[in-house]
Amino acid sequence: MFNYALVPGEATSSSLELWVGVMSLNEAPVVPADVQLENVTTGARTPVANWDRWSVPDGSAGLAFARVRVGQLDARKLYRLQLLLENESKATASATTLPDRLPRQEEQPFRLMLGSCFCAAEDAGGAVGKTFASIPQALTPELKILCGDQVYLDSPFFRFLLPHGKQDLAATFLKNYANTWTQAGDSQGFQQVLANAATWLTSDDHEFWNNAPYPSFSANTWTEPGRAEWLSLASGLYGAFQTPKQTGARDFAVGELKILVADTRIHRSADRTTFLDPADMDELRTWVRSLTFPGILVVGQPIFDGQAGFLGKFADWNLPDFTQYQDLCRLLFSAPQSIIVLTGDVHYGRVARSITHDAVELVEVIASPMSLVTGGGKPSWRAAPGRFPAMAVPGVAGSPVQTIDTWQRAVNHFLIIELWQEGDRLAFRVRTCETQSDGQMQPVQPVFEHTLGRAT
Amino acid sequence: MIEIRQSQATGRNRLIREDSRPKGRNAQWLRANSTVGSVILIGGAGLVDFRVRVAQGHLRHDLLPSFWSTVGISTGRGLMTVPLWSPRDPSSVPATNAIHDVRFAEFDDPERYPNLAAIQFVDKSETIASRARRIAQQRSAIDLPSMLLVWLGFVWGAGNRQNPLLQNVGLPASVFVQTAFAVSGIELCPGLASASSCPEAIWQSALWWHDYYEKTAAVSSSDKTPAKPAARGAGPRSIVPTGAYVLRQKAAAVTYESKPR
């Protein structure tokens, strides 16, 4: 049996990239003949070509996938698309091209969804998709940033306390991805999220295993060959389903607003000195220096954080546990413009800000989790450390961090961030969409609203 | 608890030397041992000094009072600081952000001010002094009078004021000095993980964070991410702190009382 999925990927103001996947869990993946992508809005059809495949070692299950670019589109226009197999619709999607400039104050804001940490097995009712599908039209995201842990390959954890063979691991991972990418129902399921709006996907540890690439509780990760084997399988699937290039830094722009998505997981060095390889760090450095207007930086873990220290061996190393974090701090403190940092990972939502002594503002917005995986205990919210950086970093005169105290929730959610330009200012508003109830009233008003001026 | 960080240094900074036989009175010593932009630490023996010195004990592992009760930036003839004592004209506070120039002569009495230190943290320290002046016009960036009120309440025992350092309110003089260095990219209190800036934190930086400043100097000279040239390009660079100090009253005590007029 084959499962089909259509997921909008990265977009520009004139094009959309669509990911087409044909998953088979009990037979070899087959590249289907006569597959077309129809732009329902324009009626244009594009043959799906350049198929690739990923299979489990014995070839008994796998995925055929392709990425199709649909071009010559209008800026900031919603397009409906469908996947046709021999003229029969197999999957549908919708996506809006990027605006060619930021909306003005009197126009509808540019809307971005931020989410992280989704475990399909912990969201059997499809609540995340249901919440997404019920977003009022005026707030429907035009762009999604899913900044890590879109799958939990090592969940449930007890299943991995004993070692698994390569075939078993591969089949388990594939099934996990297929369940997540096809989770559907009546206006519910994660497919609602994936199939609607352009998406920038970046990884965190659970695209691989807890605390990847370092040893963790999963028995396979205790040896170097075990980690290499797991990493190879998980990277193959990550490239197939999520992000093909697997570069540490990708950037795009909406008018004057520059956005850089940095994957701080995939290139972590074995000696725990770096989370970005030198070329990606250079790209980040160039990006920061090039800012002439406030920008957005996406990373996999918070920058307003302390070192995990000894606990990092068992849980996950934080960015400050890496030597390169000091370079990141020095870079941010030399930024010519204010930066909004979007991130996830920590299982609570938070907004915190710090103003450097050059009057450059750093605002960190955390959205986590969409669907919680926990080893036990209730999730708890934590304020940011009182200073950034929380440790002494040579060459950096730290600055106080103010955590916004009106939003302190540790509940499944994602965020909708509205952005617009007011003259020389970037204005933004953060709203939370909680996907489960913890018995308390979820905030209906924006949890944070702010403007950042252009530094001169 | 005040959030503090442990220095990794195994020994104290030998470039900070004690002057066990200071010549002359305080003003002469301060003029001889400081240059424009030096950090001046002063430990007094009055009641207000005593209370400030005891309040800073929380930054010390032994909880003993600090040697220091105020701090400022040398102008060559005096220091820029935020005095806790009443300014001559309270109306000047809003316009100056509570920052005042106090002549060295006002600290001249060794009985009233037994402890002194003059420390260099940067190479071109005169730039620090000129940038510090700008803070007087930047109350929106750093509101020193609001901290002053909290500290006056504490040292006078007004109401139920607790130790401000435990509430993350730094001593205004110290916050001013720390900020003056921070705008040049120099961290004056690497050992503090909170906003509880105080003279003791600066003293500990000078004595125990020399490795940090050595690394900072190395980073500055090989920096791949230089700061904006207009802001810092020609600015001061961090050095391993160097300087001198005089300690005539190690254990804080009120040994000086103003004579009633």
Description of the structure:
The complex is a heterodimer of chains A (about 450) and B (about 260). With about 450 residues, chain A is α+β, with helices and mostly antiparallel strands. Chain A is built from six helices and 22 strands. Chain A has helices at about 125-135, 165-180, 190-195, 225-240, 280-290, 325-335, and strands spanning about 1-10, 15-25, 35-40, 45, 50-55, 60-70, 80-85, 90-95, 110-115, 145, 200, 250-255, 255-260, 295-300, 340-345, 350-355, 360-365, 385-390, 400-405, 415-420, 425-435, 450-455. The model of chain A has no long low-confidence stretch (mean pLDDT about 95). Chain B has about 260 residues and is of the alpha+beta class. Chain B has one domain (about 15-220, about 235-245): endopeptidase fold (from Nostoc punctiforme) (Alpha-Beta Complex). Chain B contains nine helices and seven strands. Chain B has helices at about 25-35, 45-55, 90-95, 125-135, 145-155, 170-180, 200-210, 210-220, 230-235; strands at about 15-20, 40-45, 70-75, 80, 100-105, 115-120, 240-245. In chain B, strands 1-7-6-2-3-4-5 form a seven-stranded mixed sheet, with helices on both faces. In chain B, strand 3 and strand 4 (about 80) form a beta hairpin. Chain B is globular.
